[in-house]
Amino acid sequence: MDLTQGTNRYKEGRAKKMMLWFGIVSMVMMFAGLTSAYVVSKNRPDWISDLAMPQSFYWSTIVIFFSSISLIIAERAVKRNNRSVATSGLLGTLGLSFLFIYLQFETFNQLISSGYYFTGSESNVTTSFIYVVVLAHLAHLAGGIVVLLVLIYNHFKQRYYAGHTLGLELGTIYWHFVDVLWIYLFLFLYFFR
Question: 131: which residues sit within 8 A by CB, 6+ positions away?
Answer without folding.
Answer: 108, 111, 118
